[in-house]
Amino acid sequence: MEGLVLRSTGSRHEVLTEEGVVSCTIRGIFRLQEEDATNPVVIGDRVVIQVNPDGSGVIVERRERHGKLSRRAAGRKVGKEHVIIANLDKAWVVQSVRKPRMNPGFIDRFLVMAEYRGIEAGIIINKTDLMDEKAEEYISFFVELYAGMGYDMMFTSVKDGKGIKELKAGMASGVHVLVGPSGVGKSSLLNALDADLALRTGGISEATQKGKHTTTYAELIPISEMHPNAGFIGDTPGLREFGLVEIEAPDLAHCFVEFRENLGQCRFPNCTHDHEPGCHIKELVHEDMIPVERYESYINMLRSIQLGDQDVGR
Ligand SMILES: Nc1nc2c(ncn2[C@@H]2O[C@H](COP(=O)(O)OP(=O)(O)OP(=O)(O)O)[C@@H](O)[C@H]2O)c(=O)[nH]1
Ligand SMILES: [Mg+2]
Ligand SMILES: [Zn+2]
Hints:
Blueprint: E1 2-9, E2 12-17, E3 20-26, H1 28-32, E4 46-51, E5 57-62, E6 69-72, E7 81-85, E8 90-96, H2 104-117, E9 120-126, H3 133-148, E10 152-155, H4 164-170, E11 175-179, H5 186-193, E12 219-222, E13 232-235, H6 249-252, H7 257-260, H8 280-286, H9 292-306
Parallel strand pairs: 3-5, 8-9, 8-11, 9-10, 11-13
Antiparallel strand pairs: 1-2, 1-4, 2-3, 4-5, 6-7, 12-13
The chain binds guanosine-5'-triphosphate, magnesium ion (MG) and zinc ion (ZN).
Guanosine-5'-triphosphate (GTP) binds next to helix 5.
């Protein structure tokens, strides 16, 4: 029987099939084949299962993945790839206006990963009810920047309901995922889409203005009805940083949309747009044709790739 992995906690995987949700383990031999990643089966995976007489199941095969989103693994598996979700149609990075404050460095890393993997990306700015003059000034600059680059932007508030209808409409079909730092309101947004979900949400630490890592595992939630082809959206645990996976220094500039069309015009064909003389990208930064904020993000990411990026989520 075929199914879609909705939830994955340790050795238990909940798989949605035509006959309902089956709780599955993974066949041992299948586990061993996956050395490079920390998790052989993730939410969004299409799998083949065998159902036991007692109603539980065993995952015996995983269909080929397309559109996966991953980050660098933390802890003792550091450096390995940790796949967040597979077979994704669109990934949304969620940020909040305040508590915690919007983090453009996080957004840029996320956008780079999405570009690298060829996944459509969007940006959700939540907690618009907390907007004040200072936040407005800071945020509007980046909103204009990202919108100008062609990324979809949504503005939401779980508190006053702003943008929730639009969010639901934007996610009616396909598989979507919400990623972002802890406390920005990912689970709250999903609860606002469907009150029956009752996902656990947490407060914000007054001292650090950061979230409390309330969501501890990723989960795929049917947005319309319980059927494998309806719209699904993944809720994920908050990440401290978005660690880059697989990207090599020469690929990086191609993942910045506004760099891409200007590549190939530097003096040196293998220019990293860092210290090299005659760099066309740096000229464009000096002429304000490429925003310095994005160039700084690029240099930041280049450094962490060169150092063997070990920035990790939780
Ligand atoms: N003012 C305001 N608070 C919000 C909004 N959305 C969420 N919150 C609050 O922000 C806090 C964190 O919300 P969560 O939904 O748990 O955040 P999360 O992104 O799922 O966090 P993790 O699961 O830890 O990654 C909760 O106290 C929510 O009530 C909003 O639009 N406005
Ligand atoms: Mg959450
Ligand atoms: Zn250059």
